[in-house]
Amino acid sequence: MSEELRANAAALEAELDWLQRVVDARIRLHCGQECLVDSPAALPPPDPRTPGSAYARLLQEHRLTPSERILVALALAPHVRPQALDVFLSRNAVLERPFTEFGGVVAPHGGFLPTAETALFLLAGDALHARLVASTLLDSGHPLFQSHLLRLEPQPGSDTLGSARLAASVELVDRLTLGRARRPSFGPAFPARRLTCELTWDELVLEPYVLNQVAEVRAWMDSGHTLLHAWGLGRKLGPGYRCLFHGPPGTGKTLTAALLGRQARRDVFRVDLSLVVSKYIGETEKNLESVFQHAEKQECILFFDEADALFGKRTGLSSAHDRYANQEVAYLLQRLEAFEGLVILASNLKANLDDAFLRRFQSVVHFPMPKPAERQRLWRNAFSPVCTLEPGLNLHEVAERYELAGGSILNVVRYCSLMALQRQSREILLADLHEGVRREYQKEGKTL
Ligand SMILES: Nc1ncnc2c1ncn2[C@@H]1O[C@H](COP(=O)(O)OP(=O)(O)OP(=O)(O)O)[C@@H](O)[C@H]1O
Ligand SMILES: [Mg+2]
């Protein structure tokens, strides 16, 4: 890791040294001062083959030209060497104001933030033809902007291209410095949280036929890339893998999604669809898009919980066609299909799943209520190893008798373990267990 950081720092130092030479030459030429070259283009950029740096990989991946490298270095400068741009803050002594031709805006901390005008000045000076050529690099269709590495942020009150701020995305800065992206934090702009778990596959209790279906998803995680690329099936199969987990609450859907991420060493991001699918989706669409993009770039797993929101309770819409034609839902479904990775949707409502919806999934896994044999394993795994069971408390009988899902079993175990601790004991009592079960049944509207 520290080796990589060193390589990243060295590559950025070299690139910014070069940027500073370019800035210096451009200003000298512009002001008619003595300059060693007759164009900044004569200053060769550093060797892009600096081994092992994230910058070298970026250059290779995007085959950046020297002009494109100026754009990237300029956008990066405020992050890694803000003083490199201080020269642009100098004032025109004749007019007693900043040089219009340098563009830029002054940050609240006083530093110089480049704009498109700054980039055009560096690339072309004031020669109009050269500026027109350079401005094609600033087109929103240019790969640097399309891939969201750079962006142009229009400034309030000004609508010229030149006045838009040239900014590097957080992802680009993180990638070139730390070598990886920081994990975005949850908020309105990124409505997803990372899902983690402390359990292992051995602790996941499912009937063999369900485990087999989960194994299919694991196989895709292991070999999907090979299938789509080396085997060339990507053109026919489309990009990602969509999977629906459905079944009653507490049967292990979320747990399985977290375990799949852990197994594949991928982050799992959980989006709660019930919070997102509303009639105001227009506003959240953009935010969801940032989740999709982050997940695609970082090869994360996306987990959409409460997927019922997509097909449940959509009042007044009778046929499946109407439901999916609904604009907000249509966006999500389309985006899910274009997503280049594993997406898992989880739902409790089997009754509402129809063929039009199910056809969109490569796997549909039903998580059933556990049978007595699975319940017995769940009970055994759930108690702390430091506690003991009252003689006469037989987990085999308990498992046979009460139909509870894994999540509810955990609730009962929490309840009777706390009762034991209150008694300053480590012994779990049958009476407490019964009371715990009664409470769970009550929640579900059942009686013992
Ligand atoms: N099949 C299972 N094997 C092992 N543990 C389980 C299983 N099902 C549930 N549990 C336990 O119960 C907890 C809750 O389960 P989980 O959150 O995965 O349920 P869910 O199916 O996602 O429920 P919901 O539909 O309410 O979201 C898990 O963290 C785990 O500790
Ligand atoms: Mg869940």
TrEMBL record:
What molecular function terms (GO) are annotated for this protein? ATP binding; ATP hydrolysis activity
**Which residue range or ranges hold the AAA+ ATPase domain?**
239-371
Q: List the SUPFAM superfamilies.
A: P-loop containing nucleoside triphosphate hydrolases (SSF52540)
Q: Which UniProt keywords apply?
A: ATP-binding, Nucleotide-binding
Q: Where is the signal peptide?
A: none
What family does the database annotate? Belongs to the AAA ATPase family.
User: What's the name of the protein?
Assistant: ATP-binding protein
